């Protein structure tokens, strides 16, 4: 296979086709037995800042996400993008409401309100994703995300965040 450009690699990955090398933050393993373009793409979420939930959901191949450490905050949302969501035995997932670390010193009240409104919209979107992917009610998700809530692998499967324990990578 010839060396691919970043654009060619991205288009091929989204189409479920073979790529020349694995992107740094997402491991994509296409079946060596079945070279069908829609073969299962196994994905390990490593760097939440690099790829987002919508990008992973755009992939035409079924995506398998595997938690190999602690998936926290946006990492837990990215983990939820997989159709198969698996955790290693000693891994954890943490969900919580979004937060804002910006200072409001010297900011006018209406500007503060705009920031709060934006943060609440982000909260709604994230909780809807969690509710949709876990099958839990939005009310239950809001209750869980009020504080940092950690799940062991077994707890994550029971809650619906993970679909199974990983037995291979």
Give the distance, in angstroms, between the N- and C-terminal Cα atoms: 24 Å
Strand content: 15-25%
Alpha plus pi helix count: 6
Instruction: Give the CA-based shape.
Output: globular
Strand order of the largest sheet: 1-2-3-5-8
Unreliable sequence segments? 23-50
Count of beta strands: 8
How many domains? Answer: 1
The CATH architecture assignment turns out to be: Alpha-Beta Complex
At the fold tier of CATH, the topology name is 2-enoyl-CoA Hydratase, Chain A, domain 1
User: In the CATH hierarchy, what is the class?
Assistant: Alpha Beta
- Rounded Rg: 18 Å
What can be said about the biggest beta sheet?
5 strands, mixed
Order of helices and strands: HEEHEEHEEHHEHE
Structural class: alpha/beta
CATH superfamily: 2-enoyl-CoA Hydratase, Chain A, domain 1
* Average of the residue pLDDT scores: 78
The helical percent reads 25-40%
């Amino acid at each position: 296979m010839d060396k691919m450009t970043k654009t060619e690699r991205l288009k091929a990955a989204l189409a479920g086709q073979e790529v020349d090398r694995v992107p740094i933050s997402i491991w994509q393993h296409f079946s060596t037995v079945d070279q069908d373009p829609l073969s299962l793409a196994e994905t390990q979420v490593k760097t939440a800042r690099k790829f987002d939930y919508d990008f992973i959901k755009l992939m035409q191949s079924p995506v398998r996400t595997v938690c190999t450490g602690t998936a926290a905050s946006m990492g837990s949302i990215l983990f939820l993008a997989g159709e198969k969501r698996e955790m290693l035995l000693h891994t954890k997932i943490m969900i919580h409401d979004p937060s804002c670390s910006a200072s409001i010193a010297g900011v006018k009240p209406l500007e503060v309100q705009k920031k709060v409104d934006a943060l609440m919209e982000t909260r709604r979107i994230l909780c809807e994703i969690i509710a949709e992917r876990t099958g839990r009610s939005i009310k239950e998700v809001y209750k869980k995300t009020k504080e940092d809530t950690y799940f062991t692998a077994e707890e994550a499967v029971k809650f619906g965040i993970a679909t199974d324990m990983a037995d291979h990578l």
